[in-house]
Specification:
Elements (H helix, E strand, L loop, with lengths): L3 E2 L3 E5 L5 H8 L6 H4 L25 E6 L5 E11 L2 E8 L8 H15 L5 E7 L3 H9 L3 E6 L14 E7 H10 L1
Parallel strand pairs: 5-6
Antiparallel strand pairs: 1-2, 2-3, 3-4, 4-5, 6-8, 7-8
């Protein structure tokens, strides 16, 4: 893993010093609305596979995003390996950074890295169907909606009755779309 530089972001593999920023991010009920219904501390780690949901700075596939000019914390992104050729995209940004295109900018950079450097064949992502902002980010990044599934949430989350949407992009589709622009 290496440094990724975009117009507005510096994205680097996370380190233990990022832990306080990650924990503060989880402390914002609005940031956690589509993960826990806004309940703070409600997100429980159930297995090693979902540790990226609560990064603490030691996770091998989580990247910290900071503003390129000020070095201020923006949030985190990850490409979590599902199997040899597939990784799941995830991200979480501070509320003050929403609506500025930073989620799309960072996610696109990581997707590009995943196909060009890490060699993934497919990148997937999912979010609650009700999370329209996250769905827009995934679509702006070139991921395509492939299905909506109903989920039995452990605890009811507003909007959860609409289900979860799953998105994906293949390496071939990514490079084909890149040539079209």
């Amino acid at each position: 893993m290496s440094l990724l530089q975009t117009a507005n972001l510096t994205i680097v593999p996370c380190k233990p010093e990022d832990s306080a920023d990650f924990i503060a991010l989880e402390g914002d009920p609005e940031v956690m609305r589509f993960l826990t219904g806004g309940r703070i501390g409600a997100l429980m780690q159930s297995s090693i596979e979902d540790t990226y949901l609560r990064p603490r700075g030691t996770e091998p596939h989580v990247w910290t995003a900071r503003r390129a000019r000020s070095n201020s914390f923006v949030g985190w992104f990850c490409l979590w390996p599902e199997d040899a050729g597939v990784a799941e995209l995830g991200y979480r940004l501070r509320r003050a950074q929403w609506g500025q295109g930073l989620a799309s900018e960072g996610a696109s950079a990581l997707i590009d890295w995943g196909f060009n450097v890490a060699g993934y064949d497919k990148i997937i992502a999912s979010t609650m169907a009700a999370n329209r902002a996250s769905r827009r980010v995934l679509e702006k990044c070139g991921l395509e909606h492939i299905r909506t599934v109903q989920v039995d949430w452990a605890e009811a989350i507003p909007g959860g009755e609409q289900g979860e949407v799953q998105y994906e992009q293949t390496r071939t589709g990514w490079f084909s779309a890149s040539r079209d622009h």
